[in-house]
Specification:
With 195 residues, this protein is an all-alpha fold. It has two domains: 5-60, no CATH class; 65-187. It has helices at 5-22, 27-30, 36-61, 67-95, 100-128, 135-160, 163-187. The N and C termini lie far apart (103 Å). Mean pLDDT is 80; it is low at 1-5, 7-26 and 56-61.
Length: 195
């Protein structure tokens, strides 16, 4: 049997197009197909294994730190706070030379900025977590919240220009802060709690 040019062209086209068509053919026409339930079952198993792995890695990320980790991470945060507070110290020195009417506003702004830094620090230290069963560490973190409350009272007294309120709020803040700093240093921090 002899192929005509037309037949030869068709064979060439089929051979050239066949590799392109393979990707378009259904699996049913190429291989024996696995049941849909088998595929779904394998997919469900894969998802379950991946989910378990994700849960384990997330729980490890949220595991409570050891005391040493808590101190190390806390001290690193305190170093950052010291850098953030340095410009406030310079502004406080400059505020001393302002006229009396401008001092109140300047000092209130300083306290507001300090509170923002202190609140950010408290949030970040809380995110570190506390060592499991460590009531001293828990007390230190709770003390930071109390310090924020007292600092806001001082800021508000400056905002109201109330010397009466300041006479109560400022000494209370200083006493509490000094006490908390002693507890922080006694706990073992090398940066936090030290002036």
């Amino acid at each position: 049997m002899r192929l005509s040019n037309r037949s030869l062209d068709q064979v060439v086209k089929v051979r050239v197009l066949a590799p392109q068509l393979r990707g378009h053919l259904s699996r049913d026409t190429i291989t024996t197909r696995e049941s849909d339930w088998g595929i779904v079952g394998k997919l469900a198993l894969l998802i379950a294994v991946m989910g378990l792995g994700l849960m384990l890695s997330v729980s490890a990320a949220f595991a409570a730190p050891t005391k040493a980790q808590f101190i190390r991470k806390g001290d690193a945060l305190c170093r950052e706070v010291q850098r953030e507070l340095a410009p406030l110290v310079r502004r406080a020195q400059a505020a001393k030379s302002l006229p009396e009417s401008q001092k109140w506003v300047a000092v209130e702004r300083l306290w507001a900025d300090q509170i923002r830094i202190q609140a950010r620090f408290t949030t970040r230290l809380r995110a570190v977590g506390v060592p499991t069963g460590d009531s001293k560490a828990r007390s230190i973190v709770a003390g930071l919240d109390r310090g924020l409350v007292l600092a806001r009272r001082v800021r508000d007294a400056f905002a109201r220009r109330s010397t009466t309120s300041l006479a109560v709020a400022l000494p209370e803040y200083i006493r509490f802060t000094m006490s908390l700093n002693r507890r922080v240093a006694a706990y073992g921090f090398k940066v936090c709690g030290h002036s």
